[in-house]
């Protein structure tokens, strides 16, 4: 009857049951050995040793390079060298030509490709060889482009606010961001209007409005992977909910003549207030006429209206200021 023992270098024995031993090799070790010894009841004994080469677990970094490629152009994609890798295999999903990409040149850690065909997407993958294969493949999807980014797919907006919120308050700093699909860069930021200062970042601009702010325009040029540009801008206006903002009150609105027995009634308000529209309604709240004024006044024909009570609604931002109108015959 014999008994067995195990010894190891370059790792640890996690468990053994006589004739079998389970080993965990040390991270960073390049070589090791395991020795099995036996001792028998008849007095015999001995040992045998197995020497091993420990291959590293390959952890592949992400692929760097532009997120898009212009049809007819070339781009280079690369990864940092992987410790323990003896070679690298670069591939495309379903082969090179099926996605309109062709290899121009490869090195161990980079590949240069050219694009052809129509716009679409392609996936580049790289696999380091020579290790244990843990997490040994990484991929990146790139977009083939044939034309500038449509302006309709680009957003300029205040960070932290709804993309439809185009109001600002005086003496306040806002971060204006731009979002564009497959954009390579944003540049040529322009700021005009009521601002005291601004700072331009990679895909944003910080703007501080003046104490008497009423208007701001922010423009930007977006460049795609083809080097083609799209330029657009966004207007921002003073919000009526800002602290200290002048709100239109009912007593600030003048309606004359009132009562009205003439052909026309005129509605006026201070020129410091922006009224988006004025509506004339009957006593049943039915809209009879709506005007979008270009100045601080609006006029309505009332000579054909029956005698009675009517109402004028002035729309200022999200507020409605109401005035009563009496028509006499």
From TrEMBL:
Residues 60-139 form the PKD-like domain. Pfam families: PKD_6. It comes from the Bacteria. This is PKD-like domain-containing protein. It comes from Rhodocytophaga aerolata.
